[in-house]
Design brief:
The structure is a homotetramer.
Chain A (H helix, E strand, L loop, with lengths): L3 H21 L2 H8 L3 H7 L3 H24 L5 H18 L1 H9 L6 H27 L8 H20 L8 H18 L9
Helix pairs in contact in A: 1-2, 1-4, 1-6, 4-5, 4-7, 5-6, 5-7, 5-8, 5-9, 6-8, 7-8, 8-9
Chain A binds a DNA duplex through α3.
Chain lengths: 200, 200, 200, 200
DNA sequence: AATGAATGAGGCTTCATTCAT
DNA sequence: GATGAATGAAGCCTCATTCAT
């Protein structure tokens, strides 16, 4: 079938890269994991770098796509924010491998890393839009910088997911864990930590 | 001064490791940067790994120390939170190199990475304590999980700093940038994004 | 025409091999240049080596053929020498690609290289015969070793052509260049460089 | 001692490169032949290419040097020509390995090859100067192009040497072989092949 | 304390060749 | 006849580490 091998390599590459990081990952391992010869990888991809970049591009695309799908056409900003939160946590949790790469391979001056930061910026902008919309409608507090706030939220989300994924003592099913993280983040973002005098 | 050479190596190592990440960094580069022979590094450190770990340990120590210093004995939880925020952002911003390493070299199963996560946990616990204290005093809203909230806050802080450091188009002095980030994070954490009916 | 594909491959192979030399040349490039799939080349030729040898054989054959044609039945040794010179320079200049391969791929102990030297010997023998004929008729000075002299002449011819082909600053049409080279070589071979007392 | 290892590598590299040509030669073989580890070669040379170029540069330098030495201050053009011939043949014969590389690795567009051709040009110019000097003094026949003639002579010399070196059936001591080649070339260059009417 | 030459395991990549379609 | 995906042996190069001085 068309692209079956490529699919296989792709899949294995995610595993291997996520397990070891870009530098530590060995093409040999990707090949073994994919059940193909080393040369086959080079037949389909120009090299380690290209394979990795293709991978991350794909991951980002799918993530953005899924988030859009889950947010749907919900008009209410608060509900939109919740949906986005849910979607993002869910995806990152599901693809922890990808989450890890995103956070660890995005800081630096190598070209690839700049591209990754650009991708992150896309995610951030998704959040930003919601914040702006909410502020315009008056249901969200106006921010000094919607962009900076969005960045902070993205950081909170991704690090929360990663910290959870790498916690040895975590319990419960994935669904429960995700629900917990989402609820927690939602609480923080929506209400802040301080007791507001006007609320019960 | 005692250990001038060691100091030199240490300093250069921070630069080089931060610029390239652990794997990409070359002992050769550290040596050249420090103006010593390669052998000298191995005379003072057991190896690349040890040098790096010593580095990170040192960075974390100094960070914790500085944060403690800046938080002082402030009893009011909200002010404590603000001081902590200010201290953490300031330190990470100042030592962006360290911030980068912390975020990119902490996710994985290599022993060193586990140690880093433990260090992160220390930072998180600093935040956590403030949250708990605030909740006990009644000025902070009780959280589902103070720990998770603290993690989220740490993520927000560190990613905000990194994103800012790696933004090519950022303007203003460092002090201004830091102040902006702090204010923004404070706003988010303290009040959340939603307009609460009881506030003006 | 019969063997159109083969013809295509052959033609492309000359180009590619000449451009890169035997080792550097890639079957992939030959295939791309010929507009066929890589497998097709292996369908028609046993391998890289065979393709190359076939090529060189063909080149030598055509060269010998053309030289014979141009020398015709000229009985006078001096005129024969001139015709041979003209023919050889012309052919090598025209097929510089071939000339290059001949000079660069003929020295070594690989079987193929021995075969090439044998081919060169054929060319040398063409020259040798003329020298011997001339010596027998008395119009040529007797040589210590007609064979060695013939080799030297071949070297002079081929290197002259190559040096000219690879001179970036050469000017004039091909015909002019060839005529120049021929005239020069003729002068050298026929008269030597020393002024003989008996000549004007 | 200073540079002993480098000397060793150099020497081995000549052997290996000459035996196999640039592409076929393996750094591994050079290392084994030199009795050092592979890494040692890379400690002293940037890579295969640099090693090779350094080699050829060195070879050309020594050759030019030796030729200059042997030609000395001889004022008479004819004797100068003979000395040069003798020196060049002697050197190439002695360093057949180098001769082979010179002739086989000099034709192409790779930068290194351009450098080699430049080196060849130096040799050619040595010859050219003698020709010009002789022509000015009136003892040499004026040439259409002294440069082209010099090139032809260089070609005759180098190919003669190589052909001889690779002749399986050659007999006699090296000195005899060299003497034969020199005499033959001298005869060809000095007098040409044609019987001049004015000589006995 | 410091040096830097030497090492060699390890990883990336190339490319001639095969073979099922 | 022709294809092109797949292979894997082979080779170049890197770099952490060692050690004699």
């Amino acid at each position: 079938m068309r692209g079956e091998t490529i699919e296989q390599i792709f899949h294995s590459a995610v595993e291997v890269f996520a397990h070891s990081g870009f530098e530590r990952a060995k093409i040999d391992d990707v090949a073994r994991h994919a059940g193909v010869a080393k040369g086959t990888i080079y037949y389909h991809f120009k090299g380690k770098e290209e394979l990795f970049v293709a991978l991350m591009r794909d991951g980002m695309e799918k993530m953005t796509e899924q988030i859009h799908r889950q947010m749907g056409r919900e008009p209410d900003p608060l509900r939109r924010l919740r949906a986005l939160l849910q979607a993002q946590v869910e995806y990152l949790y599901e693809h922890g491998t990808f989450a890890k790469l995103l956070l660890s391979e995005s800081w630096g001056s190598v070209e690839r890393q700049q591209e990754f930061r650009a991708k992150i910026r896309e995610l951030v902008e998704l959040i930003e839009e919601v914040l702006i919309q909410g502020a315009e409608e008056g249901s969200f507090r106006p921010q000094m910088s919607h962009h900076d706030t969005a960045v902070a939220m993205f950081g909170a989300i991704s690090v929360s997911v990663l910290q959870d994924l790498f916690s040895p003592e975590r319990t419960g099913t994935r669904e429960e864990r995700v629900a917990g993280l989402v609820a927690n983040l939602e609480k923080l973002f929506v209400d802040g930590v301080v007791v507001s005098k006007g609320k019960t």
